[in-house]
Design a protein that fits this description.
Layout: H1 4-14, H2 18-25, H3 30-40, E1 48-52, H4 58-66, E2 71-76, H5 79-88, E3 94-98, E4 111-117, H6 126-136, E5 137-148, H7 157-176, H8 179-191, H9 195-205, E6 208-215, E7 220-226
Parallel strand pairs: 1-2, 1-4, 2-3, 4-5
Antiparallel strand pairs: 5-7, 6-7
The chain binds S-adenosylmethionine.
């Protein structure tokens, strides 16, 4: 069964508490990772930028701050997440749009940059989505992806595993009143592609100059590439 409908429903349900949970789970580090995403996207000039799976809009808003001449779309299939983004950044000219990353409703070769935070872990076929992103990017356009990544089995592994398996669902229960959604975060992180494998999928989708950097004890990765 496709992950899509369940994921959409889950994000619709946690939209109100999503930002607070993010700050708590990442010890406030998430902003720094998003800033890195925008930096790696390069300068889009006055072209179009797409922040896919934009959620409550943090990455799209950072683009708006740092690339003030660019035209920015924040797209997501959860209408509650988009409604929150719209409310949080009502004073900024960002175009919020409902769409499914599996079937992007944009022409070929349109965007100077496409970013997505925590999307690929939630789709059935990462390669398919990466090919969609490749299609809508302009020549030499840049893709940047932020996501969790399965931790390596080193000395820290038992502590990281405990944090993921116990602390995060507990926080989810206390703060978001939804431990299942945050147990899903842990499960989907452990099942997700290793950072090296994900980089290979970027190459298979057609991207050049692919690289990645890890954060937070190797549990977060930012990948990038160029069309
Ligand atoms: C964990 S949130 C991340 C939000 C935001 N990018 C951030 O950095 O905080 C994941 C978002 O991906 C969206 N999403 C998941 N699968 C999607 C799909 N197939 N198409 C569009 N949005 C999707 C969810 O609705 C949710 O808002």
């Amino acid at each position: 069964m496709s992950k899509g409908p369940g994921v959409e429903k889950m994000f619709d349900a946690i939209a109100d508490r999503y930002d607070l949970m993010n700050r708590l789970m990442t010890f406030g580090q998430d902003r720094r990772w998003r800033e890195f995403v925008v930096e790696k996207a390069g300068d889009p000039g006055n072209g179009w930028v797409l922040d896919l799976a934009s959620g409550t809009g943090d990455i799209a808003a950072l683009f708006h701050q740092k690339a003030s001449s660019a035209k920015i779309i924040g797209a997501d299939f959860s209408r509650n997440m988009l409604a929150r983004a719209n409310k949080r950044f009502a004073d900024q000219q960002i175009f919020w749009q409902a769409c499914d990353a599996n079937k992007l409703p944009y022409d070929n070769d349109v965007f100077e940059a496409v970013s997505f935070g925590y999307l690929l872990r939630n789709v059935d076929d990462s390669l398919h989505v990466l090919k969609q992103v490749y299609r809508v990017l302009a020549e030499r356009g840049r893709v940047v992806c932020l996501d969790t990544t399965p931790p390596k089995k080193n000395l820290l592994y038992p502590f990281i595993r405990l944090y993921l398996a116990v602390i995060i669902p507990l926080l989810g229960m206390l703060i978001a009143r939804d431990s299942d959604a945050y147990a899903y975060l842990t499960g989907s992180t452990m099942d997700f592609h290793e950072a090296e494998q994900l980089a290979e999928l970027f190459r298979r989708a057609g991207f050049n100059k692919v690289g990645f950097k890890k954060f937070m004890f190797g549990t977060i990765a930012v990948h990038w590439g160029e069309k």
